[in-house]
Every structure is written in C-alpha cells, then in structure tokens.
Specification:
The complex is a heterodimer. Chain A has helices at about 10-25, 40-45, 55-70, 80-85, 85-95, 125-130, 140-150, 200-215, 230-240, 255-265, 285-290, 295-310; strands at about 5-10, 25-30, 50, 70-80, 100-105, 135, 160-165, 165-170, 185, 190-195, 220, 225, 245-250, 270-275. Helices cover about 35% and strands about 20% of the residues of chain A. The longest helix of chain A is centred in the N-terminal third of the chain and has 15 residues, at about 10-25. In chain B, strand 6 (about 295-300), helix 16 (about 305-315) and strand 7 (about 320-325) form a beta-alpha-beta unit. The longest helix of chain B has 18 residues, at about 105-120. Chain B is globular. The chains are: A alpha/beta, B alpha/beta. At the A-B interface, helix 3 and helix 5 of A face helix 12 and helix 13 of B.
C-alpha cells in the first residue's frame, strides 16, 4: 500500500455539510463533544451547530425534536456510541416516524484500531439495517463519502453513513464509475469477482493489482449502498464468474456477504465471505486488525490463489 | 352547505370505512361515484368530499379526526398542508385566538371527573394503566382546558404549544382528555394503541419507552427558537420514569441552553410498578436535584387545578427551564385503587366498575376516600 494517497473522510464531509447548509437554511447539525465534521458550518453559523456534550441518547432525541420542528438534521458522533448507546432513541424517536435526518457514524468498523473493542463498531451496518426505513451506506474512501453525503443532503429520510476515523487510502478511479447507489466496477478480468464495501475496497483493488502482476486477473466491484441493497444489479454482475468473494469490515449478520448470498442463492459454495468474526481483537492499529480478521489484501489474495490452485477460480 | 345529523353521519361512516379498508380506498381510485352512492351520500356533501374540501365539511359538523384520516391516506388529493389550510379557512375560525378561556376551578374538576370516567369505562373493555392514568388527569385537564394553546380542529397548527406525554403508559388519560377537548371522537378510544402513536390527532410525539419525552421536548424547544416561534413545550413525566438516565442528560442540556420555553411536569405519585419509588429507587431530594441542575422548581398539589394552573402560568416568566413537581395520588379518585401498586395495570368489571364510576361521578364529589381538592 506504500505510495497510495491517504485522505480522511471527515474534512471532505465537513465541506459538503457546510455547502448544504449554505443552500438550506433549515439544516442544522448536532454533535456529542466532537465537532470535526461541523467546524466549517459551526464557524459560519454558530446557532446551527448544537453540541450536546458526551450524551448520545440525548443527542439523538434532541435531533428528533429538531426534525419534528421542521428542520433538516445532520448528526455526527463516534459510531459505536451513536448507535449502540442510543439505539432505542434511534428506533423510537427517529426511524419509526421516519424523520429527515442524516446520521454520520465516525469510526465505524475497526477504524479506531488500537483504542480497542469498546471503540469498534463492526455491528453498525447490521444494527442500522435492522431499523425500519434507513438507507445505509459504507463508503470506500473520502471521495465516495463526500459524494454519498452530497446526495443525501438536505435529508429527506433517515440515512446512516459509516465514516472512518483516520486517513485512509484513496480508491483508484473505476473502470465504470456509476453513482454511489450503484455497484462500481474498479478492476475487470478473470473469472473471480471480488465485491467489497467500505475500507475493504482499497484492500481489494490492491490485492487485484498484486494478483494481476502474477498473471491472475480478478474483477473488483465496490458496493457502497447496503440498504436498500441493489440485489438485482449484483445478480447480473455475478453471472459468468466461477468464484465470488465478498469482503467487509463488519460481522457476518446483515452484512455484504449475507446480502449477496440472499440476492444470488445459486452461488452456493462459489461464494466465499470474508468478514469480522467473534474473536476478541488484539491491540493493533486498523491495518493490523484487518490482517487479524483476514479481510485485508493478503486475505483476499489467499482465497483467490487457493481457488486457482483447486482449479475452481481462474 | 347545510347537513342534517343523518347526512353527516353517512359522510363520517364513509370516512371511517376508508380509513380502515384498503380495498375501499382502491375502489375510490377508479369508481368514486359508485362508492358515494353505495354510502348514500348527499350530492352536495359528496361533491365537497371529492374536492377534498375538508373545511366546508368541518363547518357542516363532520368530525375533524375523521377528515384528518383522509389526509393520512392522501385521499381526495389531500396533503398535510392543504388539510391545515382548508380546515382553518373552511371552519371560519382562522382569526379565532385559540387559547382557552380560563375555566373556573370547579368546572375543571367536573371536566376531570368526566375524563376519569372515560378512562374507567375503557378499562371495562381492556387492561388499562389505571393508576398512572388517574394520577395525572387533573394535570391533563388543566393543560388542555386552561393552559395549552392548541386547536382541536387543526392538531398540526404550526403555532400550537407542543405537549409530550413522556409517561406514555398514561395514554388512556391523554386520549380521554383529547376526546373531551374535541380532538377525537369518543368511539375511537377502544381502538387506539396502548401508548401514544404518531398519526393520532393531538399526539405530538410517539412515546412509550420511558426517558424519551424530555430529550425530544428539548429538541422541540430548541427547534422553536431556531424557527422563530414562541410556542411553549410542555412534557409530562412520571416520577418512576426519572430513574432513566436520559432525563438527566436532557436536564443538563435544557439548563445549559436556557430553554425558557420548556416546562416539565412531574407526576409525583410516589409509586412505580413494583412499589413506592422510595423503596425501588429513591428520588429524594427531588426538588433539590432539579434546582442543582439549574431548573426553576415549584411544587404543587397535582389534584388542585387552580394551583396547577398558577404554577404553570408562573413558568411563562422564567428565564430558563421550569419543572413543576405535582404531588399526586396513584389511582386518584377511586378509593380501592389509590396508592396501591396492584392497580398499575387493571381491568374493571361488575361491582368494582360500578363503584369506580360512582366514586368519580359528579354527585359523589367530595365523598371518595380522599376528597378531590376544593
């Protein structure tokens, strides 16, 4: 991964939020003692940024009250606490009435690395997908995150966007670059299809580039929208591949792999799902944790090479 | 358009059926005239209905609740906006100042007894949170008949005071007072959910999970400020509900933001599901806690309408958030229920039903085990 540019999602999103606030005077933002996402908005319109302190339950309910007042609301907080601590508030106060609100979970997945499992949110996608009427996105990099955010501001319904906490690799531009609601094709070739989401996308493209050098081309597709899941599109995409590998920085339940299995049941054993398992993580930075759970470039390469050796892959 | 009782009834019957029956709504889309004929609607009223003229129908006496249901299903091209606009103009009450004329103390007590009897009669049909409902009936009656600026004909009127029943298990009491105040027709009370849900006219916020009402009310209070409105936001909390930590997050927030338009009433009946609050999880010194959090605190007899009203009116002059600690009796007005946790949820039949109704009747006032405040 040496030499790949790394960009943080937060400043990219902060600019989009400020721009949306410029166009919609009824847009307000809330944070819980963390204003990285809202600095440009807050410095221009101090009244339109509300910091509730370290109180995520209150954060979500206050946001609900603001949305019920006719305002469009952007909420940003650390993903593990925004979701797990305020889950009841998200369900009853926000999702059941379907309020216009965009929720930004900073540090989803394993992004907080060595801070430990208290700060990991590998269940954010599953939990947010279990709530009624929520659109769930897992962007691949800062550009993707900014594009997704721009498309869902000002909020019309409930949207959750998982953001990473640190600077992450920039995903190279695609073979076919559709919008964030569609599947993006980033590498093409061979008879193996790797579908990745979020941070795992850059692992998949890096693995594909390594494998191509070794004479084993693979196709890489990025799925940023997980709910509602573009199942039909995935189904069409999978046709003709002998092996499909899904990669995600999330638990198996409610994740990308499960959604692909549901959308294309005939894949059967031709679908290999790489995801986070139940093991307690060691104290390692983000990249080390991706390695630990086998959802990094090495894990992807290993699956593809095994398949090639068995003759089922390429 | 003039409409007699029977013509009006036929319109209401159709509205009611449309609300409940998806097949009928589908039929409306392709054969509206056939449907109107089947329900024997007067041609003039039928034309008003087809045009979505809810204002004129309201002026004829059709209940706004049923008209509002049409809007919920987006029938007759109605939207929340067109509904609000038409129902106000059509009823010819656009210029009416909606604050209630202040009702005399005894009239409020009489109203409260009527509301209590509605709750008790409901408990003959289904289990009801009787204790928690009866303890807050005087408070709700004062709110809806003397304090809140609300319009029963236009529940979503933008300048209304917002009321959040955080102790959602007292839904029966809220529904009963909404019926008394004209928001809901009496017949629907048995069909409404056990906790307040969105879409019921007069219900501001769906509740039921405790510890949500105050935080949402904080958002409504900030929202009023940001949108340049001057309405009040009032939340009624149970005392057992104060066990939930989210209330105290919100209490910090409201004081920090000087939310002067926010009023909390605590229904301090001293009894939660399993027993006295002092035994389950002691809240005292409760007044000192709110004060320490930066709130303006007053304590009143929650069954004395004049005292409750005076306490509420005093909050209008506060520079920050206010809390009214209303001392109440769980199961108030029915001697065998008062202060007994066994009546947290209950159903009444036979002699106990008759006795409860009799103790809350107008000719028995002052003769129940604990006399109503005079």
């Amino acid at each position: 991964m040496i030499g790949v540019a790394r960009v943080s999602m937060r400043p990219a999103c902060a600019a989009v939020i400020a721009q949306a606030a410029e166009h919609d005077r009824g847009l307000v933002a809330l944070g819980a003692d963390g204003r990285g996402l809202f600095e440009p908005l807050a410095s221009r319109w101090p009244d339109r940024y509300i910091d509730v302190g370290i109180a995520e339950s209150n954060l979500v309910s206050v946001a609900a009250g603001l949305a019920r007042s006719g305002l469009r609301v952007v909420v940003g907080a650390m993903a593990p606490f925004l979701i797990r601590r305020a889950y009841e508030q998200l369900r009853l106060d926000v999702c059941l009435p379907g309020l216009p609100m965009t929720l930004l979970g900073v540090g989803g997945g394993l992004s907080y690395g060595a801070l430990g499992p208290s700060h990991h949110a590998v269940d954010d996608i599953a939990l947010m997908s279990a709530l009624p009427g929520v659109a769930v996105y897992c962007p691949a990099d800062a550009n993707d995150a900014a594009g997704i955010l721009a498309s869902c501001l000002p909020p019309r319904g409930v949207t959750y966007v998982r953001l990473t906490a640190r600077e992450e690799p920039v995903v190279p531009s695609g073979v076919e670059d559709g919008g964030s609601d569609t599947i993006r094709l980033l590498r093409q070739g061979g008879s193996v299809l790797v579908i990745a989401t979020g941070r795992a996308v850059s692992e998949a493209t890096a693995a594909a580039d390594d494998l191509a050098v070794g004479g084993v081309p693979v196709t890489v597709a990025a799925a940023s929208r997980l709910e509602p899941f573009p199942g039909d599109e995935i189904r069409r995409l999978c046709a003709g591949y002998r092996l499909v590998v899904t990669v995600e920085e999330a638990i198996a339940v409610g994740g990308l792999g499960q959604r692909v299995a549901d959308a294309v049941p005939e894949l059967g054993r031709s679908l290999v799902r790489l995801h986070v398992d139940d093991r307690l993580p060691p104290a390692r930075p983000h990249a080390g944790l991706l390695r630990f759970y086998g959802i990094d470039g090495a894990g992807i390469r290993a699956v593809v090479r095994q398949a090639a050796a068995r003759g089922t892959g390429t | 358009v003039k409409a007699d009782l029977h013509a009006r009834y036929r319109v209401e019957r159709l509205c009611y059926a449309l609300d409940r029956d998806a097949d009928l709504r589908a039929q409306l889309a392709h054969d509206a005239q056939g449907l109107l004929q089947r329900f024997d609607l007067d041609p003039e009223l039928g034309a008003l209905l087809v045009n979505g003229d809810v204002g004129a129908m309201h002026a004829c006496g059709v209940h706004p609740y049923l008209l509002n249901r049409l809007q919920m299903h987006r029938l007759f091209s109605l939207t929340p906006e067109t509904f609000s606009e038409r129902i106000r103009s059509g009823a010819g009450v656009a210029a009416v100042v909606p604050s209630q004329p202040v009702q005399p103390h005894n009239e409020l007590l009489r109203r409260a007894r009527t509301v209590a009897r509605r709750v008790i009669r409901l408990s003959a049909r289904q289990p009801v949170h009787l204790g928690a409902s009866l303890s807050c009936i005087h408070i709700l009656t004062v709110l809806y008949f003397a304090f809140l600026r609300v319009r029963s004909d236009d529940p979503m009127w933008p300048d209304r005071d917002r009321f959040v029943l955080s102790k959602g298990h007292a839904a029966a009491a809220l529904y009963a007072v909404l019926i008394e105040r004209g928001f809901l027709p009496p017949e629907v009370i048995g069909e409404l959910p056990g906790h307040p849900a969105d879409g019921i006219p007069g219900v501001e916020v769906a509740t039921g999970s405790l510890g949500h009402g105050l935080p949402v009310a904080c958002g409504l209070a900030v929202g009023a400020r940001l949108t340049g409105r001057t309405h009040r936001v009032v939340a009624l909390l149970g005392d057992g509900e104060l066990d939930e930590g989210s209330n105290w997050e919100a209490a910090l927030f409201a004081a920090h933001r000087h939310l002067a338009n926010l009023v909390v009433i605590v229904d301090r009946n001293g009894v939660q599901q399993e027993g006295p609050t002092a035994e389950v999880l002691d809240l005292e010194p409760l007044s000192a806690k709110w004060s320490a959090f930066g709130w303006r605190v007053s304590t009143v007899d929650g069954h004395d309408p004049a005292a409750v009203l005076a306490a509420l009116e005093a909050t209008d002059r506060s520079a920050g958030p206010s809390v009214v600690l209303a001392r109440t009796v769980k199961g108030k007005g029915v001697s065998f229920m008062e202060n007994d946790p066994a009546w947290h949820v209950g159903q009444l039949r036979g002699a106990s039903l008759r006795r409860a109704l009799s103790e809350c009747s107008d000719d028995r006032q002052g003769r129940s085990a604990l006399p109503v405040a005079q």
